[in-house]
Please model this.
Amino acid sequence: MKTDTMELHSTLASEAVVPAFSLREKVSAYLELTKPRITFLIVLTSAAGFCLGSRGAVDYLLLTHALIGIALLGRLLPFEALWFGLALTLTAEVYLASFVNLLTAALGLTIIAGYLLLYTPLKTRTTLSTVVGAFPGAMPPLIGWAAARGQVGIAAWVLFAILFLWQFPHFLAIAWMYREDYGRAGIRMLPVVEPEGRVTGQQIVAFTIMLIPVSLLPAVMGISGRVYLVAAIVLGLLFLVSSVRAALSKSNQHARQLLLASVLYLPLLFGVMVLNR
Model:
């Protein structure tokens, strides 16, 4: 859940007349900075982590508090709107610490620190920034679990691993589609430094293959049931087909189809996991 395509474009303001924006336009601009589509996936996987981490019935009031705080953290980049970003982050941290627990607040702060201090500076320096960014990117279900139990265990780390592995085919598909834009922005994504796409395709397939057995662990560990096990196998194989096709063709069309497959795969997988818990 790291780089949105809008981050690839900068506005040259020199010698330009600054237009007068209406209040509605300003609010819309600030809302866009919170990256609502990505925040939706973060909140969704956090909610799944909370439900799966709950002992017995789900505490919906606590879940609501957790999701409000996590949504405030969102995917905002404070360097784009420094004070707005700092205000949201501080509000989220205080809210989580006050209404959920200190562990959840600490994990939320880890996400922000990981993105700003590690992932963001590395984007223009090395392709390994994708790996670095995948760690904070995989933490939402871990935070949800911590919000429900006040601690994290092996089961929570399995959810973390699923999201960690899922990010690579997802973001490599995006990187392949927008490799020219990334290149102009000076962001060293793998398809930029390796334009022939051979290694990119290999990594897409390799991470998808690794994802499939890891996605079965919730059923093996008793986090979810047999219906989930079947669904995870079917969804994983369909995801793999899309990954292999994109890797072989190296076309934008199949990369876009892989992106769509990844966006459908994640909520379906976690949805069935929660419903069959």
Residues 2-21 have pLDDT under 50 and may be disordered. The CA atoms of residues 65 and 99 lie 6 Å apart. The two ends are 25 Å apart (CA to CA). The first helix runs from residue 23 to 33.
